[in-house]
Amino acid sequence: KSYNIAIVGPMGMVGRKITSILAERDFPINKLKLLGTEKNKGKKVTFKERTIYTEVAKKGAFKDVDIAFFCAGNEVSKDLAPIAIEEGALVIDNSSRWRMDPKIPLVVPEVNPEDLDWHQGLVANPNCSTIQMLVVLKPIHRRYGIKRVVVSTYQAVSGTGKRAIDELNSQVEDYISKNRITNSVYPYQILFNALPHIDSFLDTGYTKEEMKMIDETKKILGKDIQVTATTVRIPVFTAHAESVNVETKLPMDIDDLTTILNYSKGIKVLDYPGKNIYPIPINCAGKDHVFVGRIRKDYSIENGVNMWIVADNLRKGAALNAVQIAETLIDRDLL
Ligand code: 2RA
């Protein structure tokens, strides 16, 4: 069987990635519709040697669509996703608009595929930094029971979008040509810097990105798990890195834990510190796995472990996870 697929927001970074991942994985597609803004109408996109012209995302466009990937931001998801569902499409939404709605499953296929079973036409894709952390936390939680997680992130500029990639590139050029370095996307120069500020600040002092990591982890893994987060932007183009401290209920043997992670779906352990082998963003960009290394006992508490988790934020953190949701829905006969 093959499916009619739509991508809403096909010209953005995630939309383009979804298109290329659908081709790479040979997703069973009958017809691919690329639905963008009025301004982008008629743009040419190549898909598996075929040329597709973008159309306008609007009411009526979803009547012949089986699965619609939404990656055009919260407002578009808020307005158009209910229309797409009404017209018969199953929506996989990359925005944060529906993630915390208790009636909407929030899914990482390696972690909670069973939550797809209660979908009502829309499945939400979690935040990029949450997805990669949860792929690693799930097998730990299953075996040892997680009590508390303390995470600090080192996030790539592509998480902000194309304008941020352009800003970092032009700051590199300005630095080399000894021009004045300017910034507009971030409040400070990102080149040679680290900004403890992703998304906007809330009254509590936390950022929205930090709250996404906390709230989404609880929704997916369980509300009893305590989570605290600090999210930081660094001058890397692709792949987010995270330092994660986990406290468990049961004692962990680090060798056993490493073996469990090694055999878990979607994870690759890279952990030979004596040979300088550990995951780094440059090597993880463009890959599908979540990479984990620097796995070591936390001697400051009874049952604790520290680790370093890296994954491509545009692939597993967004487009790939969305496509895997679609594949899992098909496998579970839920379309
Ligand atoms: C970021 N989490 O990296 C965002 C992208 N969704 O800014």
From TrEMBL:
Query: Which residues does the annotation say bind NADP(+)?
Result: 158-159, 313
Q: What is the reaction catalyzed?
A: L-aspartate 4-semialdehyde + phosphate + NADP(+) = 4-phospho-L-aspartate + NADPH + H(+)
The residues listed in the UniProt record as binding phosphate, with positions renumbered to this chain, are 99
Where along the chain is substrate bound?
155, 233
In this protein, which residues make up the domain named Semialdehyde dehydrogenase NAD-binding?
4-119
Q: A Gene Ontology molecular-function term? A: NAD binding
- List, alphabetically, the InterPro entries matched: Asp_semialdehyde_DH, Asp_semialdehyde_DH_beta, NAD(P)-bd_dom_sf, Semialdehyde_DH_NAD-bd, Semialdhyde_DH_dimer_dom
Assigned EC number: 1.2.1.11
Q: Does the keyword Oxidoreductase apply?
A: yes
The active site consists of 128 (acyl-thioester intermediate), 240 (proton acceptor)
Give, as one word, the top-level EC class.
oxidoreductase
Keywords, comma-separated and alphabetical: Amino-acid biosynthesis, Diaminopimelate biosynthesis, Lysine biosynthesis, Methionine biosynthesis, NADP, Oxidoreductase, Threonine biosynthesis
Q: Give the pathway.
A: Amino-acid biosynthesis; L-methionine biosynthesis via de novo pathway; L-homoserine from L-aspartate: step 2/3; Amino-acid biosynthesis; L-lysine biosynthesis via DAP pathway; (S)-tetrahydrodipicolinate from L-aspartate: step 2/4; Amino-acid biosynthesis; L-threonine biosynthesis; L-threonine from L-aspartate: step 2/5
List this protein's GO terms for biological process.
Answer: 'de novo' L-methionine biosynthetic process; diaminopimelate biosynthetic process; isoleucine biosynthetic process; lysine biosynthetic process via diaminopimelate; threonine biosynthetic process
Domain of life according to the entry: Bacteria
Family the UniProt entry places it in = Belongs to the aspartate-semialdehyde dehydrogenase family.
PANTHER family for this protein = ASPARTATE-SEMIALDEHYDE DEHYDROGENASE (PTHR46278:SF2), DEHYDROGENASE, PUTATIVE-RELATED (PTHR46278)
Query: What does the function comment of this entry state?
Result: Catalyzes the NADPH-dependent formation of L-aspartate-semialdehyde (L-ASA) by the reductive dephosphorylation of L-aspartyl-4-phosphate.
According to the record's subunit comment, the protein's assembly and interactions are: Homodimer.
Known HAMAP family for this protein?
ASADH (MF_02121)
Q: What is this protein called?
A: Aspartate-semialdehyde dehydrogenase
By which gene is this protein encoded?
A: asd
